[in-house]
Amino acid sequence: MAKQIPVRQCIGCREMKPKKELVRIIRTPEQEICLDKTGKKNGRGAYICQNKACFEKAIKTKGIARALQIEIPDEIYDTIGKELI
Q: What is the pTM of this model?
């Protein structure tokens, strides 16, 4: 039997993709928001494609803030945007 590939939904384009193709944005227990390249850090996570269009769409629709259940200031979006792309 073939091993199942974990799939997650991008919060920008809303497409289901293999977990390895997506980047995880997390809210740590200390309420800090950062990129989780390993996918193993502790905290509430949201997955997004590694392209600018999905990131901008997620900001516009407030998808990241909704998924992480926290208000996100613009400077954090700027920081994540620079790391992501």
A: 0.91
Query: Rounded distance, CA 2 to CA 61, Å?
Result: 37
Q: Half-sphere exposure of residue 5, counting CA atoms within 13 Å on the CB side?
A: 9
35's enclosing H/E stretch is strand 33-36
Answer yes or no: are the C-beta atoms of 85 and 78 closer than 8 Å: no
**In the block, residue with structure tokens 């407030």:** 62
Q: What six digits make up the tokens of 19?
A: 């977990």
The answer to whether residues 16 and 7 touch, using CB atoms and an 8 Å cutoff, is yes
Residues of the chain with confidence (pLDDT) below 70: none
Q: Are 42 and 24 in contact (CB under 8 A)?
A: no
